[in-house]
C-alpha cells in the first residue's frame, strides 16, 4: 500500500467553507480598488534570485534566511519563489516601460513564499494583497495609500487597528543616523545578542526592531532618526500627517518603526492589532524612491504597502464570528433520474436569471428518497425547495416550497416560464 502524501508543512489547503471567506474578501478588495482607480497587476511567482538580493536587500532576514531558491536544471539560472512582490512589480514596470506616460496605481493579490518556522499567522506559503503607486513624488500619495488601507479594513468591518508611522528620511540623513547608531551600539556591545552583533556593521537599523527583552531598554535610548531629518523630510512627514487628519485616519508616530526591507525612504507605516499576538502587523509599507535605480531603471518615485490576507481573515473571525459561503436560493429535489432532462434545463434558466440553485445529485439511477432529499435541502440553508416530481412534470410544473419562513407554504410554477418567476426565489 502506498503511503499517504501530505501538503508541505506551512503550505495550507484552503477548502470550503473557509474558501468562501477568501472569495468574499477578494470581492471587497476589487470593489475598493475600482473605486480608487487602481488596476490589477499579475507578476510571476518565480523570479531571478538577483531581483530580491538587490531589491529586498542582501542583509535582510528574507534574503539571508527565508528565500526558496534553486537552480534551473535546464540553463543553470538562479531562481527564487517570490518572498514579496514589490521588487517584481518594479521589475515589470521597468521591463515594460510602464510609467512612460505618467504615474500608475496598481494592486495585486497572490502567493508569497518564505522558509521559516510555521506558526499562527506566519506560513511558508502565504497570501498577500498589495497596492503600489509608481511615478508620484508627493506626500499626498503616501497619505492616499494609508487611507486606502484604512478604508479596506473599515469596509471589512474590522475595528481596533492602530496606525503607526515614521520617516526614514533620505539617504544622507540615514547615513548620519547610521553612524550615530553604530557608535551608540558599539558603546553598549556587551548588551547586544548574536543577531545584533552580526547586524552592527551591515544593517544596524534592524537592531531597533529587535524582539529581545534584554535589549529593549538599551534600544529605546538609541539615537532616533527623526532627530537627523532635514527640513524637506520633516515637511514631507508633516504633510502626510495633516492629510491623514483631514481624512479621519488616526495615527501615532513610532520612532522605532523601521520596516524590514532595505529599499524604504521617507514615510514608513504599519497597521497593527493587539488581538493576534506576535503576528499583529496586518499591513505595512512606505515610500521606496530608490528601488527603480537599484533594479536598473530610471529614477522613479514610488510608494506601496502589503497586507497579509491570512491575518486579516483570522481577525475577521475573531471580531465578527465564523462565516462561510452564502446559502443557495433554492435546492432542486429530483426524485427520479428520468426527471433530469426536464429539471436541468429549468435550473439553467433560473441560474441565467441570477438565482443560486443547488441540484440534488444521486448515484446512477438512484436519486435518493424524497425524505432524504428534503433533509439535504434543509441542510443546504436554501430558502426554497424546487420539487421536480412525476406529478408536477406531467403537467409541466415545478413545486416551490418555502423552507425558512415557518409556514412550509408551496405553490406551483410553470417549467416553461422560469424567467417570469425567478425573482421570487432571490434573497
UniProtKB/TrEMBL annotation:
Membrane-spanning parts: none
EC number: 6.1.1.21
Assigned keywords, A-Z: Aminoacyl-tRNA synthetase, ATP-binding, Cytoplasm, Ligase, Nucleotide-binding, Protein biosynthesis
Catalytic activity: tRNA(His) + L-histidine + ATP = L-histidyl-tRNA(His) + AMP + diphosphate + H(+)
Cellular compartment(s): Cytoplasm
Positions bound to L-histidine: 84-86, 114, 128, 132, 259, 263-264
One Pfam family here: HGTP_anticodon
GO MF: ATP binding; histidine-tRNA ligase activity
Keyword set includes Aminoacyl-tRNA synthetase: yes
Gene Ontology, cellular component aspect: cytoplasm
Example GO BP: histidyl-tRNA aminoacylation
Span of domain Aminoacyl-transfer RNA synthetases class-II family profile: 25-335
Main subcellular location of this protein, as a coarse class: cytoplasm
Record has DNA damage as a keyword: no
Subunit and partners: Homodimer.
NCBIfam families from the UniProt entry: hisS
PANTHER family registered for this protein in UniProt: HISTIDINE--TRNA LIGASE, MITOCHONDRIAL-RELATED (PTHR43707:SF1), HISTIDYL-TRNA SYNTHETASE (PTHR43707)
Stated family: Belongs to the class-II aminoacyl-tRNA synthetase family.
Official protein name in the record: Histidine--tRNA ligase
Organism: Ramlibacter lithotrophicus
Lineage of source species: Bacteria, Pseudomonadati, Pseudomonadota, Betaproteobacteria, Burkholderiales
Designated gene of the protein: hisS
